[in-house]
Amino acid sequence: MHSEGRDSDSDPRRVLVLNPVSGSQDHVDDIVELAADYGLTVRQTEEAGDAMRFARDAAPEANLIAAAGGDGTVNEVVNGIAAADELETTTLAVVPAGTGNNFATNIGITDLEHSFEVLETGRRRRIDLGVANDRAFVNSCVGGVTAEASSETTPDGKRALGVLAYVKNTVATVADFDSLSLRVETAEGPNGEAAQSWTGDAMFVLIGNCRRFTGTRTAQAHVEDELFEVTIVEDASPGRLVGDAALEGLFDRESAHIIRRRTPSLTVESLEDSIEYSLDGEMLETETLRLKVNSQPLEVAVGESYQENPDADEGWPLEPTQ
Ligand SMILES: Nc1ncnc2c1ncn2[C@@H]1O[C@H](COP(=O)(O)OP(=O)(O)OP(=O)(O)O)[C@@H](O)[C@H]1O
């Protein structure tokens, strides 16, 4: 029995952190069985926060930690590895058992069995890790999404739209949608990107790290370039944004009301009240958010279809910054 993770035959070098309540909640038996086949020690969470603690405690001895759950579980496990300061010697694997599984899709993981093959024999890549104040994120950080709308976002919405489902739900559920009065300051980039400052009223600010971080085809970030892709959606009538097509249209190259930047670090400061941010779907409320790409990358076991760079034939949505 591996589920306690303290048995004499358990291997502390290969640990799987299992969230039993993510996704459709019917994955526990299959994952425990696969973990035993692959010689992984299972630590099953009992409440929010456990995944972070289990990963932090396991990281000094482990060379592989698998996160079995959704994006929130991945986020906690990554925060645990980072808190233990073990990014250099610990590989993250992802076993997709969530609702949206946006990150798993981004790294080329197709299903449960495949995820175990990948953790055993898949390529290892070092990807950018975002840090927002003192918390790590892998996919995205979105300001302007409310916690209330986030908790009510449906599984179908998450699967179809990724993080944009939260944006859509916020627009749809918050009757008196207030714009965010913001100052956004980006730092200089390595390819001549200038430091820039933007002040104004925004509906959302999206900071993307991973390819297809929003789930849409047109909003993509390069995950090994040490840069974030920042999208500021300027204030516009919320009614115009409700449909899926309108939301995706927001990220088209020609879209009005969109400001884009690429930068290794930035500060987002509210000029009024504190703002709610979603970090990979986990909420954080603050007035000032300082974001940077972590100096130490995150090593991840990736599937065959993993691509660090957005598809060439789909075009790159960003215009170079002056
Ligand atoms: N045993 C547990 N009981 C209650 N909550 C838990 C437990 N273990 C983890 N959690 C919390 O469950 C939340 C949701 O998990 P997760 O994001 O992995 O799944 P999901 O929402 O179904 O999938 P996705 O984010 O991919 O759409 C996370 O905030 C996590 O902290």
UniProtKB/TrEMBL annotation:
Single Gene Ontology MF annotation: ATP binding
Cofactor: Mg(2+)
GO BP term (any one): phospholipid biosynthetic process
Gene3D superfamilies linked: 2.60.200.40, Probable inorganic polyphosphate/atp-NAD kinase, domain 1
Keywords: Lipid biosynthesis, Lipid metabolism, Magnesium, Metal-binding, Phospholipid biosynthesis, Phospholipid metabolism
GO cellular component, one term: plasma membrane
Pfam families tied to this protein: DAGK_cat (PF00781)
Residue stretches making up the DAGKc domain: 10-136
Region of interest (Disordered), residue spans: 303-322
Alphabetical list of PANTHER family matching this protein: LIPID KINASE YEGS, SPHINGOSINE KINASE
Protein name as annotated: DAGKc domain-containing protein
Organism whose genome encodes this protein: Natrialba aegyptia DSM 13077
